[in-house]
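Dear colleague,

As promised, here are the two records you asked about, laid out in our usual form so they can be pasted straight into your sheet.

NAME FIELD: protein one
SEQUENCE, THEN STRUCTURE:
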Amino acid sequence: MKKSLALVSLCFMLACTCRAASSRGDLQARIDAAKVVLDQVMSAEDHSVPMNILERATCVGVVPGMIKGAFVFGAQYGQGIVTCRTGHGWSAPVFIRMAGGSWGLQIGGQSTDLVLIAVNDRGFQDLLKNKFKIGADASAAAGPVGRHGEASTDWKMNAELLTYSRSKGLFAGIDLDGTSVSQNSDDTEIYYRTAYTFESVLKGNVAVPVGAVPFVKAVAHYFVEAKKH
């Protein structure tokens, strides 16, 4: 009984953390944190995203500090941002939610940074029209690591998304099958003060807000650098 109550409490607390109303200050902090994660990952030399993957990227998502908790059942929730490549650069970011669960003999909790890279034309523009599940609605693979190394060719044939995690300084590909990804329209509207559609923002029809410029410039910088190699 106590275990059941602990599980209910855990899931409730994580759900509240994910769905609580955000202020513009909270959202700006999330964008700033996403840039820090991206910069730290890409400065890891031989433990970063391979260049041949970056140059194919159509969209990049970063979820800083995804919360994981477990007491026999596991639950994980996170909120992040996504930007997509357009005909004239990279789009303004939109806000997303991620949620998933797991089963097993586990106890504890941790915070993990996630990086999601779309590597074909479908990208997040189409996927985010509706809530989708990684591995079911969108083929995904744990992304290979190694800045100048040869990445596995499997993802070129099958994956729409490459998924990575960073926890306690370790950056590696991760299997996120079963994790759902959905629009956070409320946060997007709060940040832009207008109810823009995700498709409109990610296709570059909305100007990049001043506060999001550093993040978008960072993505563009790493994309350009990858093209040079």
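NAME FIELD: protein two
SEQUENCE, THEN STRUCTURE:
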Amino acid sequence: MIFAHIAFRGCLNRGETIRFVAHVHPFITYAEFFKLIFLGIILPLGFNLIMPPFQVVWMGWIICGLIALIYEIFNWYLDAWIITNMGIIDYQWDGFFKKSSTRIEYNTIEGVTYNIQGFWATIMNYGDIMIERMGSGTVVTLKNVTAPKSVEREVLKNQKEFLQNKNMKDQTVLRDLLVSMVQDKKLGK
């Protein structure tokens, strides 16, 4: 969670804290990771054993492979739903210079559902989670998320807590306003 606070701190508003971060299941992206590890690291190491005079070429190849692997890890980690104490942030990272986010406030959420479909999704516990926004009828989806039932539970738990705190604040403001009006009436203002 420490890395999440560092990686996503630019998305947060004042007083907002990260409660949970939902990512795409690594099983979905493992093929890309293994391809980069094999083609970018293992293969040039093998060539280095066979043809040591070209060590500079192989080391350059390995460095390029490591950079590509790090880029894919960032791409996987930074495409996430950030569940905070104030709402949900759908954060999309499409490169070092292209980022986007969509904020969903808890009071605008109409429903949260999840869908686990298929053999591997059931075995590996990943699926899609959808949030329907009130009024607009739009649905925000995070596909192939790890443990979608847990994500749904986190969203609903934090939504309930947010709405209870909001209701308490509204009641306090209303009470103070009524007290002020009664005092003004007694003083003849």
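A couple of things worth noting about protein two: Residues 148-186 form the longest helix (39 residues). The two ends are 55 Å apart (CA to CA).

Best,
R.
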